[in-house]
Amino acid sequence: AERRDALVQRLSLYKLRAQVEVMPIPDAVFVAWGADVPEGFVADPRLSALGGRRWGDQSETDAVEADWQAHRLALGVPDPTQDALMDKTYPIEADFDLLNGIDFHKGCFIGQETTSRMKRRGTIKNRMMAIAFDGPAPERGAEVLKGELRAGEVMTGAEGRAIALMRLDRMDGDLTVEGRPVRVEKPGWIPDL
């Protein structure tokens, strides 16, 4: 919601001569996950375990935003609105290529050349990964250290788990954040790196 106006402005730049109007819709977005996703929800294209989404003005709920965030973090899925820094993170580092967010057969998107080159050459050095720890989440921007070496940076998190942008060559071994031990938890949907 806090980025809505910026998104409308950005999308409006790309409509060119098309006779369309880009405008925000005030209705809420609802998410359902678990064994029985109710009718009317559209499957999340990123990962089936994320469940489904629908938008509308009313829906009965038995969960709150924190429950959704805990579910997403347990699956190790980055939140593109919070974890991916719009002008600093390459989509491929935010796992968009693994979560159906990048089409390497379609042409012309911002950052296409760099993203395609990283994929083709196998030079992806960083990936967003789930990290686990005891206690509350570290602050956004806290460094993940492997000894004295910087191994990553915390993006978002909750009690016991967070998403961090990790250097792939420094994910193993003894890692710490703010002096506390952490471990990388590679979800099953991420292939061997």
Provide a short characterization of the protein structure:
By secondary structure, this protein is of the alpha+beta class.
What is the fold named in CATH at topology level of the largest domain?
A: Gyrase A, domain 2
Question: Under the CATH scheme, which architecture of the largest domain would be assigned?
Answer: 2-Layer Sandwich
Fraction of residues in helix: 10-25%
Global outline: globular
Domain module count: 2
Q: What is the CA–CA distance across the termini?
A: 34 Å
CA gyration radius, whole angstroms: 18 Å
Average predicted local confidence, pLDDT: 87
Number of helices: 3
Uncertain residue ranges: none
- Total number of strands: 9
Strand content: 25-35%
Class derived from helix and strand content: alpha+beta
Provide the CATH top-level class of the largest domain.
Alpha Beta
Major β-sheet profile: 6 strands, antiparallel, barrel
| Secondary-structure element series | HEEEHHEEEEEE
**How are strands sequenced across the largest beta sheet?**
4-7-6-5-8-9
Characteristic key phrases:
193 residues, alpha+beta, Gyrase A, domain 2, 2 domains, 3 helices, globular
